[in-house]
UniProtKB/TrEMBL annotation:
It comes from the Bacteria. Keywords: Copper, Disulfide bond, Membrane, Metal-binding, Transmembrane, Transmembrane helix. PANTHER family: ELECTRON TRANSPORT PROTIN SCO1/SENC FAMILY MEMBER (PTHR12151), LINALOOL DEHYDRATASE_ISOMERASE DOMAIN-CONTAINING PROTEIN (PTHR12151:SF25). This is Electron transporter SenC.
Length: 221
């Protein structure tokens, strides 16, 4: 038979924590986590950008190719005091690329006239096999005002890698092929730095995109 301890040595189990206390602690923990994330974002970029802000002095990559007028084209980030919205697409794109051009054109139109001249859009084709300068010209002038650039392979792969862009040819049964590609737009300031990235789904909020662009225009060297 096991000997029981004296009554003075018996310890009672702690009372269970009420459910509402556990719930409150969970809410506090989530609030602290969100607060820490917000603080990190503000330290990295004090301005509350709508898009995703880059940290530090992240340099944008330059590249060369042929523009929509068939002329040699060299993209030197920040050259000419320009702020650039750069994205990768192709002229056979059924929806995302033409809408991106249209939204960025609306952004430019919404800028004050003096700032409008410093903002440009550049489309780099991920389908150089089909996107001739003539086709690029027709495309960018139909959907907006942008510079269309054809970069041949294998140079295109290097440019895409510099910007973290992926693209892939996809065969379509009974039709011509399509291209899967990253749909982000990169905002580059007049010092040649990557400042903001917008996902395609953010571009319809034109006013918020305009606010990001104006902040970069005002804080560029």
């Amino acid at each position: 038979m096991t000997e029981l301890p004296a009554s003075s040595e018996i310890q009672s189990a702690p009372a269970p924590r009420p459910w509402y206390v556990s719930a409150l602690l969970a809410v506090v923990a989530v609030a602290l986590l969100l607060g820490a994330a917000w603080l990190f974002a503000r330290v990295r970029s004090p301005f509350p950008f709508y898009g995703t802000a880059y940290s530090g002095n992240t340099a944008a990559a330059g590249f060369s190719g042929t523009d929509q007028d068939g002329r040699p084209y060299a993209f030197v980030p920040g050259q000419g005091d320009k702020v650039t919205a750069l994205f990768f697409g192709f002229t056979h794109c059924p929806n995302i690329c033409p809408l991106t051009l249209a939204y960025l054109d609306k952004v430019k139109a919404a800028l004050p006239e003096d700032e409008r001249e410093r903002f440009q859009t550049v489309l780099v084709s991920v389908d150089p096999a089909r996107d001739s300068p003539e086709r690029l010209k027709e495309y960018v002038e139909y959907f907006g005002k942008a510079t269309g650039v054809r970069v041949p392979e294998p140079a295109l792969a290097g440019v895409a890698r510099d910007y973290g862009v992926g693209y892939q040819r996809v065969e379509v049964k009974g039709a011509d092929y399509q291209m899967n590609h990253t749909t982000a737009t990169y905002l580059i300031d007049s010092a040649g730095r990557l400042r903001v990235l917008w996902d395609y789904t953010q571009l319809p909020q034109v006013d918020r995109v305009v606010a990001d662009v104006r902040q970069v225009l005002e804080t560029s060297p």
